[in-house]
Amino acid sequence: MDKLTQYRNYVQQLINEYAKYRPAYGDIEVETIFDTQRDHYQLINIGWNDEQRIHGCALHIDIKNGKIWLQYNGTENHIAKELVALGVPKEDIVLGFQAPHKRQFTGFAVI
Predict the structure, then answer these.
(1) Among 5, 45, 79, 108, which residue has the fewest nearby CB atoms (within 10 Å)?
(2) What's the half-sphere exposure (Cβ side, CA atoms, 13 Å) at 39?
(3) Is 82 helix (H, G, I), strand (E, B) or coil?
(4) How far apart are CA 54 and CA 99, in angstroms?
């Protein structure tokens, strides 16, 4: 299996695992969005908590130029470490939510 296919599988596996958990409040649906042609992957929450509308991204991951970009992590877990545990080298993981000038200090890819 080529690297891109493997990374797609890892990302989808990870997001599907998090999709099993629903928020403890409100009437919230958890949705996965997998755009395998453009390599955009998201986990979003949609619904209502009493009279407050809930709609937001919990996890956003892209694959660009052979690297996994963590664009947003609204979970309490370290998603990059979970990817490393699956076999993704640190140099193929970009913490996109970190400012570009700070990425050199993360231990992961700069770009």
Answers:
(1) 5
(2) 18
(3) helix
(4) 28
Which residue, 64, 85, 67, is CA-closest to 13? 85
Cβ neighbourhood burial of 92 (10 Å; 0-12, 13-18, 19+): middle
CATH of domain 3-105: 3.30.310.110
Distance of alpha carbon 26 from its chain centroid, rounded? 23
β pairing state of 67-73 and 52-64: antiparallel
How many angstroms separate the first and last alpha carbons of the chain?
24
- Alpha-carbon distances, residue 56 vs 65, 76, 86, 87 (angstroms): 27, 15, 27, 29
Nearest C-alpha neighbor of 74 from the set 87, 57, 86, 61: 57
Per domain, the residue ranges of the chain are: 3-105
